[in-house]
Predict the structure.
Amino acid sequence: MSSALVWIRRDIRLHDHHALSCALEKFDKVYLCFVFDTKILDPLPEKDKRLTFIHQGLREVSTHLIEHGSDIEILHGDPCEEIPKLVKSLKVDALYYNRDYEPYAIKRDTSVTKTLEERGIQVKSFKDSVLFEKEEILNKQGSVYKVFTPYKRAWYEKFMQVYSGEVPQYSFKYSSLAPNKIKKSISHHDWHKALGFKEDLPPLTGGTSEARKHLQKFKGHIKEYEKARDFPAMEKTSNMSPYIRHGMISVRDLLRRGLEDKSSGHQVWTSEVIWREFYQMILSCFPHVQKKCFKPEYDNIKWLGGTKEFKAWQEGKTGFPIVDAAMRCLNETGMMHNRLRMVVASFLCKTLLVDWKKGEKYFALKLLDYDLAANNGGWQWSASTGTDAQPYFRIFNPTSQSEKFDPDGEFIKRWCPELKGFSKKKIHEPSKADMLEQADAKCTLGINYPHPVVDYKLNRQKALDMYKEGIK
Ligand SMILES: Cc1cc2nc3c(=O)[nH]c(=O)nc-3n(C[C@H](O)[C@H](O)[C@H](O)COP(=O)(O)OP(=O)(O)OC[C@H]3O[C@@H](n4cnc5c(N)ncnc54)[C@H](O)[C@@H]3O)c2cc1C
């Protein structure tokens, strides 16, 4: 009887799973495993919502497999050691997995592949988390695209050419699942203690069924997406990012939803899903972005902002309400609306004059949907150092962004309740409120809410000079 092991990583689901589907078709007996990687886990704090989210997703996979007489093996350690050990003990003929484009993952997978191939084990990797990877989409000169709009056009052309406009779907064959021999299931109630963590519940529950519920709910909002997507208080985006990050839903599920209608909402939303692919491609083709600016001339910028400004930003105590509300929301929930990510990222580099890499690192620690490619792309776009980035002299004014995208201050009031008493106008800029207005609002600046940590106008000019000097 032939057998294979499928290594689940950032694809915690059973349906529409490329590697799993191919293994189930080809082999008589298919085992599944997941490794809690100590190299990733060790630097994390004791509480991390992502671990609970991943656990919830794995538990759902396990429950489903147990119902069909199988299960998923959960390991804890270094995958470069754990995977070869498991392959040996199960005596399987092959290891199958879906590709991951992050530099650490590529190094890890190359090492595991080498170890196993030296032992005569077949190792096969599959494209799953994107429709088109790396150099599959090239311009007429044979180079990869560095600008999104022509990339998107070429993406659609390729989609028609390769898939005739039909999103592919991978099947699942239950009869090939290996019988359950696993002693300790993921459902074990002390799972987090075994990993050395404390349980920390995320605002969204992990797992495919929850992902599907959110995607179904979004069906009711997608037509209004183009208009509603920029208003954080409305909560009209899909919330798919943590699910797609951990592969609890497939990118093909998202594309099927986006392409099922031609409304402007459907088109704009599909375009966002293609942005995700664009940044995955950028990371694969230009791995230097992980540590440096995409545009090398921006590496010379001498950032003027210090610890005081960075700390105020992290804690949501800058004295700029929209920024503080967004950062407090991130700290509490691990989530942040896209418009606010752009506002706080631009604010950190172009108003507080702090290196974007520090902000990127902080987001990496906090975001439930943290994804190296999308996070790095978003930060480099905001800092004007990346592909397709806005020019450095385009600086978001936090007050006008707030007035435009949170006109009634609804989002601000949710996260900075001390500002509730201010008028619709002053809530965006309480530093402009006189003593009487502060008394009426029961909020004294410097006591109940901080004074602005910097002077916006002054720092705007400093930012322009800092960038100009750096890139000359
Ligand atoms: C500074 C900064 C950092 C970011 N960090 C991350 C990150 O770590 N992980 C992450 O998934 N997204 C990141 N984004 C992109 C975006 O903010 C989130 O994908 C989006 O807010 C998720 O909410 P949603 O699922 O409701 O999105 P929707 O608006 O419903 O969009 C649908 C899907 O499209 C993709 N998407 C949407 N916008 C973008 C974008 N600009 N870039 C890439 N993919 C996109 C996501 O997978 C998202 O789930 C970042 C953006 C910025 C400006």
About this structure: Strands lie at 3-8, 29-37, 72-77, 94-98, 122-126. Residues 229, 237-241, 244-245, 272-273, 275-276, 279, 337-338, 341-342, 345, 363, 367, 369-371, 374-375, 377-379, 382 surround flavin-adenine dinucleotide (CB under 6 Å).
